[in-house]
Structures are given as C-alpha cells and as structure tokens.
Design goal:
mainly beta; 4-stranded antiparallel sheet; NIDO_dom
Length: about 110
C-alpha cells in the first residue's frame, strides 16, 4: 500500500453507495456477501455497502513516473453489527515499483 498521486492529471477516483436494507440487492452486493460468507464462514446480509475505485492511479510522487499505474478497489460493508473491508486489485496485482518507495520499513498484514 502506498500513497497515490493524482496531481499530474493521471488517474480517477470514484465511488458507489449501495443501501440495501429492505430492498433488492444488485449483483455486486450479492457477490460481496458471498465472499464474506465463504472466507469468514459466517452468515452475512449487507444493509450498506460502499465501493471506492482508484483507476489508473500513479504512485506518489507522480512527477517521477506516471506510466506505472494501479487500479484497485476498497469495499466497505456492514450488516449493522459487523463491518468488513475488502481490498481488490486488478489482475496482475500491485504494479507500483515498491523499490522506489520513500519508506523501507513497511509492515504488511492485518489484525
């Protein structure tokens, strides 16, 4: 994970909110629920979901290279009691050159 830099006019960020309490769920929300049920081995029915997409985002600092971009999403969802976050990357994974990052003491994981 690193900072994206949109200062050079490369890349886009957009979001979509899904309010699904007492309404029909779109296929995207059904897919999110299925992933949570599968990986967390729990029953889950979303009442709210937010999808944020960073498309063709260059790494910080973009002034050095705007050719290496990433497209990724964060999906936040809750059933009103539990909340989950899914991080999704384009096929091929993270494409930024991590050897050029300003910080070398990076910790990757979850808690």
């Amino acid at each position: 994970w690193d900072d994206a830099d949109f200062s050079r006019g490369v890349g886009t960020t957009f979001y979509q909110e899904f309010l699904t309490l007492n309404t029909a769920k779109p296929p995207f929300v059904n897919d999110v629920e299925a992933k949570i049920r599968r990986y967390m081995r729990t029953s889950y029915s979303a009442v709210w979901t937010l999808r944020i997409t960073w498309e063709k985002a260059p790494a910080h600092t973009a002034r050095t290279d705007t050719r290496k971009t990433n497209t990724y999403q964060a999906v936040l969802t809750t059933d009103g009691f539990r909340s989950y976050l899914l991080i999704l990357y384009q096929d091929g994974g993270m494409r930024w050159d991590y050897s050029q990052l300003s910080a070398a003491n990076v910790l990757i994981g979850y808690s």
